[in-house]
Amino acid sequence: MNHWIFIVTTRVSDGHKFEAEEVLRQRIEDAFWGLGEGTPNRKNLKAGDKVVFYVGYPIKSFAATATLATDAFKLSKEQQDGVSHGTEFYRPPWGVRLTDVHVWNEKKPAPNLVPVLDFIENKTFWGTYLQGGIRGIEKDDFERIVGASGPVPRPPVFQDTDSASEFALEAHLEEFIDKNWDNIDFGLPLKKYEIEGQSGRQFPVGPWGIDFLCTDEQSGDFVVLELKRGQTSVASDK
């Protein structure tokens, strides 16, 4: 059984603005979640998997849970019509059925949970981990989100100054690269990969995220940029 975050954000389609909370309410009423052809992790969704729903800016909170009643499947035209509500926005090519849906009376703000969520490695710029469509997480993080209540958790404590310094260095380096992308010479004409609201930064792959998923604009090949603290395992004394 896998654990997922389904991320919903405000979108504009055919001149109409679909607010994130509106989309969540509609899909929960449908007991269905729409997926695009290129939605990250789509092929890994299986019946019985657990889901927590995250509502993006300006809410920035976790709001509900559900269980997947089906694997991801391709919809027929009739099935698309049944969940489209007369709009192209709600007419997806793929989707999953939902069961055991629970909408929380009180949403759980993401900033309160960031300090204790392992999948968010860069605590300073945590928003990049909650973008796009679907992100896999470990069971422990799922349970931390679902079971969270009370005061804001205490942030993690670094055991030594070097660890804290290295963490801060990587966090700010990632942000610097993202903000200054067009001014950096990577040796290749790299472009951050983007698909269905998911930018190439912290691109979700199962329960992990790639720091930067890019494409070579000349060859079209995928290129992965990973930032590592300290010495890598391939270093030698030579």
Run of helices and strands: EEEHEEEEHEHEHHEEEE
> In the CATH scheme, what's the topology name of the largest domain?
ph1033 like fold
Query: What structural class do you assign from the helix and strand content?
Result: alpha+beta
Number of domains: 2
Low-confidence residue ranges: 150-155, 231-238
Give your account of this protein's structure.
The longest helix is centred in the last third of the chain and has 19 residues, at 161-179. Helices cover 21% and strands 31% of the residues. It has two domains: 3-147, ph1033 like domains (ph1033 like fold, Roll); 161-225, no CATH class. With 238 residues, the chain is an alpha+beta fold. The protein contains five helices and 13 strands. The strands form three sheets. Strands 1, 4, 5, 6, 7, 8 and 9 form a seven-stranded mixed beta sheet that branches. Strands 10, 11, 12 and 13 form a four-stranded antiparallel beta sheet that branches. A two-stranded antiparallel sheet has the order 2-3.
